[in-house]
Design a protein that fits this description.
Shape: globular
Structural class: alpha/beta
CATH architecture: 3-Layer(aba) Sandwich
Bound molecules: nicotinamide-adenine-dinucleotide
Helix content: 40-55%
CATH topology: Rossmann fold
Number of helices: 7
CATH class: Alpha Beta
Largest sheet: 7 strands, parallel
Number of domains: 1
Strand content: 15-25%
C-alpha cells in the first residue's frame, strides 16, 4: 500500500472516471472522500468499504464555494488532512456554438472551469498548512485542441483548466510551496461516463462509442478508447512520492490521439 497516509478528495466521484479514481486510490491504501451531487457518490464509497477500504460519501456541488470549503473541512475531520485533490466533476454540454444559448455556455464554464477553481481554492489552505499536497485536475485533450464541432464551451472550459493548472503550479512552486504539485490529466475518448453517453452530432443524437467508432477511431494511433482505470492509474502515479518533481504538466492519456 503506497498511499496509506493520504486523504484524497475526489469531486465527481460518482461518475465514470471519478469512480475508477476513488477505487484505485482506496486500493493503494488512501482514505477517500468521494464527493458528487446529491447521493451520487454513495455507491462508490460503499463499494470501497465493502472491499475493506476507507471512504465516505459527501454531497457537494462544485458550483458552490461553501460546499467546497465544507468538503475540505470534512477531509481534515474524518482523515486528519487533505493530501490529494482530484477534480473529476464535469459536464459535456455538446452543441454548436450558435445553437446553444448563453446560459448553457455559462453552465459548462461554471462547472468545468470555475468548479475546478473552487475545489482548488478550498483545498489549498490545508495543503499549504501541511506544506504538501497533490492537485490533479481532469482536463481533456480538448483542453489542447478544438475537436471537430459541438465542443466549443467544453473545449474552452478545458483549455481554462489546463491554464489554471499550469498557473497554480507555477505560483505554488515559486512562492514557497514546492511540496504541492499541480498537474492535469488530459484523457482522450474514455469508455465510461460522458465518453459513452448520448451526445448531439450533425447526424442526430449518438452514443459516445458510436461517435468514437465513426469519427475519431482512425485518428487515434492505438485505434481504441481509453479505459477509466487507465485515467485512475495516471492520477495515482501523480500522487506517489516519487512523482514529487512533476508539476505544471498536462499528461495526455489518449492512445496517441493528440500527438498524431
Ligand atoms: N469520458 C471521457 O471520454 C472524458 C474525456 C476527457 C475528459 N473527461 C473528463 O473527465 C471528468 C469525468 O467525466 P466522466 O466521463 O466520468 O463523466 P460523468 O458524467 O460520468 O462524471 C461527471 C461527474 O461529475 C458530476 N457533476 C456534474 N456537475 C457537478 C457539480 N455541479 N458538482 C459536483 N459534481 C458534478 C456528475 O454528477 C458526474 O458524476 C470530466 O471532467 C470530463 O470532462 C472525460
Amino acid at each position: 500500500m503506497r498511499l496509506n497516509d493520504h486523504a484524497v478528495v475526489i469531486t465527481g466521484a460518482g461518475g465514470g472516471i471519478g469512480r475508477a479514481a476513488a477505487v484505485a486510490f482506496a486500493a493503494d491504501g488512501a482514505a477517500v472522500i468521494a464527493a458528487d451531487l446529491a447521493d451520487k457518490a454513495g455507491a462508490v464509497a460503499e463499494e470501497i468499504r465493502r472491499a475493506g477500504g476507507r471512504a465516505v460519501a459527501v454531497s457537494a456541488d462544485v458550483s458552490h464555494s461553501t460546499d467546497m470549503s465544507a468538503l475540505a473541512a470534512r477531509s481534515v475531520q474524518e482523515f486528519g488532512g487533505l493530501h490529494v485533490l482530484v477534480t473529476c466533476a464535469g459536464l459535456g454540454g455538446a452543441g454548436l456554438l450558435l445553437e446553444q444559448d448563453e446560459r448553457e455556455w455559462t453552465r459548462v464554464i461554471d462547472v468545468n472551469l470555475n468548479g475546478t477553481y473552487r475545489a482548488i481554492r478550498a483545498a489549498l489552505p490545508q495543503m499549504m498548512a501541511q506544506r504538501r499536497g497533490r492537485i490533479i485536475t481532469i482536463a481533456s485533450i480538448l483542453g489542447k485542441m478544438g475537436g471537430y464541432g459541438f465542443v466549443s464551451a467544453y473545449a474552452a472550459s478545458k483549455h481554462g483548466v489546463v491554464g489554471l493548472t499550469r498557473a497554480i503550479a507555477s505560483e505554488l512552486g515559486s512562492q514557497g510551496f514546492p511540496g504541492i504539485t499541480v498537474n492535469a490529466i488530459c484523457p482522450g475518448y474514455v469508455r465510461a461516463g460522458m465518453g459513452v453517453a448520448m451526445q448531439a452530432t450533425k447526424a442526430g443524437p449518438m452514443s459516445g462509442v458510436e461517435i468514437f467508432e465513426r469519427y475519431y477511431k482512425r485518428l487515434v494511433p492505438q485505434r481504441r478508447m481509453i479505459e477509466a482505470e487507465e485515467i485512475a492509474h495516471a492520477a495515482v502515479f501523480l500522487a506517489l512520492p516519487e512523482s514529487a518533481g512533476i508539476t505544471g504538466q498536462a499528461l495526455n492519456v489518449d492512445g496517441g490521439f493528440f500527438m498524431s
